[in-house]
Amino acid sequence: MTTPKPVGRRLYESACQVIPGGVNSGTRYVGEPYSLAGAQGAYVTDADGARYLDYHAAFGAMLLGHNAPEVNGAVARSLDGVDLVGVGVGETEIEMARLVVELIPSAEMMIAAMSGSEATAQAIRLARAVTARPLIIKFQGCYHGWHDSVARNVISPAGRAYGRDPLSAGILDDALDSTLIAEFNDLGSVQALFEAHPERIAAVILEPIPHNVGALLPTQEFVEGLRSLTRKEGALLVFDEVITGFRHALGGYQQVCGVRPDLTSFGKAMGNGFPVAGLAGRRDLMERFDFDGGDVLLAGTFNGHPVSAAAAIATMTYLRDHPDFYTRTHTLGERMRLGLAGIADELGVAATVSGFGGVFVLYFASAPTLGYRDLLRNDNAAYLTFHRRMTDAGFLMLPMALKRNHVSGAHTEDDVERTLEAAHDVLKGMLA
Ligand code: PLP
């Protein structure tokens, strides 16, 4: 039973007076009027005083933990310098780009943005400019932001999967028709689209691990196949590493799988909770953004903001200088996955555990999940119940279909063990 949230309810009701739906991003409403009042390390506290161990991690934007002193200290120091001038370039912007180029294997140049959506919008426009082709391919289940080219076909019900499933009203038909939908881990579905639209496809964009539907793990054959197919067809390969970037490895998932995309978008964890994102890639492509000689517009009042850049530099530097960060979070993530699988097995729950690094997901489906088609078998109601009850028990897991959970640098072994004990009780209770 969810604990009443009188303060949260009051705040939510006042929010509804001035903010449509009472939240500033649709997925922040989780069926209960949560209002968070504090955050530190691996924990958050709500306005009604309840404390949660946080696996939501602001949709993956928190990586080192909340209010990480290394990042917040750098941000505080940046406030003593230049705020925003809007002329030329600042040292922190250069340092941020330099670090991205140093850390991300395929990055030769980088442009800054303030959100992942802007980064993927830039990637798509650049791909169209470079190839002079109109279409792009995205995968059912991947999310790349709220703009017209990609705001479709994420968590689609069976009847609309692979068909026309916009996330929003107000998207031009032309935009919807310019985005083709393929099946993740199915190279044949991509090949078929290239055959059906010869020399019309500018780019294939994907989350290398589609974390917006939990964690579909790509086969090596699939990512390598995409690389050679796009090359052969003259299209760009875009890795959207907005979630996987910096989280799964310093150089993102491209470092893990060894495949070099032409362009990479990143954001979220890069600034450990501060608004910063970017697009990186091959020099010859990125130079199209050059205001003097290029032809693709690069603009944005807040791009490379000193506060954002300070947060990004501090986060990237911390990760670079602490390689044990990945060993630790991956070990905790693995313990969580093995623990959950063991509990499901012991209790006879038809479930499959997935994830990578510190990310873990408990699908309520009994067979391996390779593509979106397999997720149509997931018992979404059970998934929601599990996440809701875990949250009620003090373990914040986003109560939304197919959302993933994140272990951060602030979680401990003890946290993981307590989480597993709670998961045992919750799953047992769900069987009763
Ligand atoms: N790409 C991926 C993989 C994402 O998960 C998201 C956001 O969830 C975005 C892009 C869009 O990023 P933003 O919400 O910062 O615009």
TrEMBL record:
**Origin superkingdom:** Bacteria
What SUPFAM superfamilies does the database record attribute to this sequence? PLP-dependent transferases
Which key words are in the record? Aminotransferase, Pyridoxal phosphate, Transferase
Asked if the record carries the keyword Cytoplasm, the reply is no
Q: According to its UniProt record, which cofactors does this protein need? A: pyridoxal 5'-phosphate
Quote one Gene Ontology molecular function term: transaminase activity
Pfam family name, one: Aminotran_3
Task: Give the family per the record.
Answer: Belongs to the class-III pyridoxal-phosphate-dependent aminotransferase family.
The protein here is known as Aspartate aminotransferase family protein
